[in-house]
Amino acid sequence: TQLLEQSPQFLSIQEGENLTVYCNSSSVFSSLQWYRQEPGEGPVLLVTVVTGGEVKKLKRLTFQFGDARKDSSLHITAAQPGDTGLYLCAGKASGSARQLTFGSGTQLTVLP
Amino acid sequence: KAGVTQTPRYLIKTRGQQVTLSCSPISGHRSVSWYQQTPGQGLQFLFEYFSETQRNKGNFPGRFSGRQFSNSRSEMNVSTLELGDSALYLCASSREGRTNTEAFFGQGTRLTVV
């Protein structure tokens, strides 16, 4: 069974601060996706990383895939209240169908 | 381009009843996956369908079943509902044919079993 450990579980910060969310596994993933979910809604895809060492930037969000493709991080610069939400990482193993293994999520609250 | 559509959005059922949830994938997407999301367990994979065939199944009891139609629309059914089945049920669609296909989720169906 492939597991994704996500940390921290909860994060409450002031507007303007920086933060990093981590997603770790002992398994290798062919790709890893990050989602953000609002209460009562489905997860919205933010980014997909597929190459070890890959770094992708989406405005103030920076995503990195580990060299061994076992871990990933999401860094947010100058967080804003609109960044509040549940951040989920999800990995897809090599050779499997479209099944994604999800981390437990990081609930981020950005206070104005 | 329309996103993934799930119906109904909310549902309240009594223990012992059965329920059917519907999912219409993004046009052109042939793979549909279902997930259950609860506060305690997070997002857990139920099953995946492609071309009307179940291609992958998660670790859920046989009370959970699904099917896919020729137009790629999918339904999932839960029989003999239990209180623990209360959850947000999410459907995700993917386009087949790409190595690292991204999954796009619907808004979910909030099922409450009383």
Model description:
The complex is a heterodimer of chains A (112) and B (114). By secondary structure, chain A is mainly beta. Chain A has no helices and 11 strands. Chain A has strands at residues 5-7, 10-14, 19-24, 31-37, 44-49, 55-58, 61-65, 71-76, 85-92, 101-102, 106-111. The mean pLDDT of chain A is 92. Chain B is globular. Chain B has no helices and 11 strands. Chain B has strands at residues 5-7, 10-13, 19-24, 31-38, 42-50, 53-57, 64-68, 74-78, 87-94, 104-105, 109-113. Chain B starts with a strand and ends with a strand. Chains A and B meet through strand 4, strand 5, strand 9 and strand 10 of A and strand 4, strand 5, strand 9 and strand 10 of B.
Which helices and strands occur, and which strands form pairs?
The complex is a heterodimer of chains A (112) and B (114).
Chain A lengths: L4 E3 L2 E5 L4 E6 L6 E7 L6 E6 L5 E4 L2 E5 L5 E6 L8 E8 L8 E2 L3 E6 L1
Parallel strand pairs in A: 2-11
Antiparallel strand pairs in A: 1-3, 3-8, 4-5, 4-9, 6-7, 7-8, 9-10, 9-11
Chain B lengths: L4 E3 L2 E4 L5 E6 L6 E8 L3 E9 L2 E5 L6 E5 L5 E5 L8 E8 L9 E2 L3 E5 L1
Parallel strand pairs in B: 2-11
Antiparallel strand pairs in B: 1-3, 3-8, 4-5, 4-9, 5-6, 7-8, 9-10, 9-11
